[in-house]
């Protein structure tokens, strides 16, 4: 081989070599001030300097540890004792709480071609909103209802407020049932016709599903009012079995039905500003169920076929409408008229009221309210306190429990008994992101070194020393907060207690005062009792025809020449200890000897791939600095060597085996970066065949498409995990590659999958390189094992994420990076005590990128409650949705998709019905009453149900679904939130320093004269209205007219005006907050590409059959009523 001069590739990525400071490289985003300092500032030295004093347990607030001073916090170890009160010091000033920080990372890659654009006609908004006017939605704090339920504390949440639909001004025409008697605007508390609607079991005569729409739809719901175009939505009318929609009839007196809560006085109603949901008190109970007088004639046509009550479980399939995919036709009937109280007399014909979208819970309002409420840093010292939402910028202060950046729970008040938990159906789970990157104003976990003695642990359950250990007998022993066992304090760890029984060095030791910290692990915690070798990175590059032709090979090789200088390290001052190795492959594998002493790299070809081995040991894994010239030579030559290849077949299994064998030979853990293009059909272990069969979609066999087609990769994954070999897979497919199978190893080893369908150097390079740069540089731990311990009465029973488990308790992660989250579910195995609460300790043993073995510990205590109301008052819906999505997406492996969807809907209905039954104030069954903390559960759950994974459009490929399914399994709450409910910002006015307030994800929020930015965490769209103001055009695009906008733009022109600058800054800041680079896509209103964009307007009905928010809410209400009856 020749050492060639670097052929300056037209560097599309043009980044200067040495400094990664340029835009291209620095990108690691705001949250990553020092791109190369992994662990945002290594948790290096713990500085005991200034322990805050005082009753409140304060974290050592001495500020972030100096990055470069890795001095272990070992001053007290080994026999050092400190007597006397802890030094008093002033706590350092708090960092500004206003720092912008969006934690979170995201997943997928930008908009991909893989989302084809056939999104079909869009549903008309009108119909969507035209239903149910009279439905009342109340959310509020539980009020005392039954015996034993304490009144809500007003201090926490507003008392239950009813979201009654404000009388919608607009009436969409419904076919005029003769019935409509003149309707009167509902007096505030007036009888709402709507109530009737929802009240009670459906009249026997109703026809279950009539969706007015879809041509292909199976059953049609005769709703006259719907436009034909709405064919997608199939909401079963069943949901509205109540009285006829039109409420013109005078409200029946409150039914005397034995409704337990009926007698209570209605809450006071208050009106909220327009965009917020109108809050009002419950309307007087309307007629319920059977008692309801049949409405005036509504939807006459439909009546005939309708059967009486819809079986509760029947809902489920929302999808329908989509012809091609059989299985998704569901019982979600189209949009019936949801009777509603008629605010105003309907003019002439059928006046159908539309449910005012402003009258149902708004995600934007909830997000804004939470932001407004959050003015102080969030201190973690108060047990059971719900943290700010993930959408709120806040500063977290560790005062004894893990920060919400590391751990978020579905409930911060856990039911005391299994029965209560079962009754509520609220999942008890925590989403843990063990190595999360913290914003610059928060202190990373301190590193505690107890020397050879290692961490102090409970003798019985082995929990690590933490703030929940109670010291007794003058400090000579401690009682475990998890299992109550009493353990001797080792002599070197002894300390006296103060008059309150607290150790006097409490605030000097992170493990006694903080929720999160790290211990230096001793050799006992190392594999085979040997201090680990530094990890290695191995790059395995597909050099088959497609890989070369697409430009991928060239781009990867060119980039690595620079990127190898930015391998992860804990001390930015020092070189990374990570060694590197290189392999290229098609049907055979080529290993490279890049030993520093060689003048030229040497290639060794292994053509027998049936039993992979590594043909060289010395010279394969090298230090970048030592072998720089040889490596650069190699990277220059690879593209040339394969420039004329005709080889189209590839192998895949042997590629991973090669990397694994190399790590085994070097006796180290590490990461494989595999750049791969095609289905591995060449003869070799792990060979695959094309099994893509869209006909299976929607059938009971659909689940097989998510399962690997061969068992080979499961076995291989297990071997990788045993070695600490993490695999990151970069896919560049032009057709089906079977992501479900190729992804087995990455997903089982804690790795990541990136997918660039129809990769084109010109348009996709930026996204790919940004992903690659971040992936290589980010903080990662290797050969990790995570164990979650809990206090008596509760235990971790299930785990969701990218990892492997060979027993029921240890989560094994060959690699664990700062973006990965693991969701853990808990179940009761005994009664819990309100007094002691419930404790959780998550300990992750891993090898740092510098080769040090460590234990990261996160502790979390939550309250236990004997009142369901307390549970419902202290939940976090975003976390519940994270859990539900992972639970459902995993369920796809073994269950028909429809069953998975039905399960989700049923569980959600049970959660809300339990609240209604046990916690809500008396009201009519016609009212939908939602807990304040869960008022967005329906809208978010609907987003999960209509995601491409559970309800694919006809054009969503199986690979896309498998990819998303795997991606979401590793998401934290921030990522899953924006993935399911994208952020939509109007850009008419931009002020520096603050973002415009987002609007709801619905087409009706878009103005033709405006420009909007939509962010999903994976995609970024700039939507331009057809009548956009000229000033905006000039400011953003520098063009005079709408038609001159180039829709193929992936970046905005750099114009010299403040608006342009601000908009580009916003886009960059969004990208910086996500773990994957979001490519920008410009969407002109009414262009073809708008169909892709509309897919993310998740409150609207989707082309693939997903219900609109309004329809889903009605459906959910019906489900709840059925459960209550
Ligand atoms: Zn214990």
From TrEMBL:
Q: Which keywords fit this entry according to its UniProt record?
A: Cytoplasmic vesicle, Protein transport, Transport
**UniProt-annotated location(s):** Cytoplasm, Cytosol; Cytoplasmic vesicle, COPII-coated vesicle membrane; Endoplasmic reticulum membrane
**Cross-referenced SUPFAM superfamilies, in alphabetical order?**
beta-sandwich domain of Sec23/24, C-terminal, gelsolin-like domain of Sec23/24, Helical domain of Sec23/24, vWA-like, Zn-finger domain of Sec23/24
Instruction: Keyword check for Chloroplast, yes or no.
Output: no
Q: Which residues form the Sec23/Sec24 helical domain?
A: 877-976
Instruction: Please give the GO cellular component terms listed in this UniProt entry.
Output: COPII vesicle coat; cytosol; endoplasmic reticulum exit site; endoplasmic reticulum membrane
Predominant location category: cytoplasm
> Pro residues compositional bias: what residue ranges?
49-58, 84-95, 166-190, 242-268, 284-303
Q: Which family does it belong to?
A: Belongs to the SEC23/SEC24 family. SEC24 subfamily.
Region (Disordered) location: 1-358
Domain Sec23/Sec24 beta-sandwich spans what residues?
Answer: 781-864
Question: Compositionally biased, Polar residues: which spans?
Answer: 71-81, 99-139, 272-282
Q: Which GO terms describe its biological process?
A: COPII-coated vesicle cargo loading; intracellular protein transport
Question: Zinc finger Sec23/Sec24-type domain: which residues?
Answer: 455-493
Question: Which GO molecular function terms does the record list?
Answer: SNARE binding; zinc ion binding
Bias type Low complexity, positions? 12-48, 140-165, 228-241, 325-341
Tell me the InterPro entries matching this sequence: ADF-H/Gelsolin-like_dom_sf, Beta-sandwich_Sec23_24, Gelsolin-like_dom, Gelsolin-like_dom_sf, Sec23/24_helical_dom, Sec23/24_helical_dom_sf, Sec23/24_trunk_dom, SEC23_SEC24_subfamily
Membrane topology qualifier: Peripheral membrane protein
The Gelsolin-like domain covers: 996-1066
Can you give the residue ranges of the Sec23/Sec24 trunk domain?
Answer: 532-776
- Stated name of the protein: SEC24 homolog C, COPII coat complex component
| Gene this chain is encoded by | sec24c
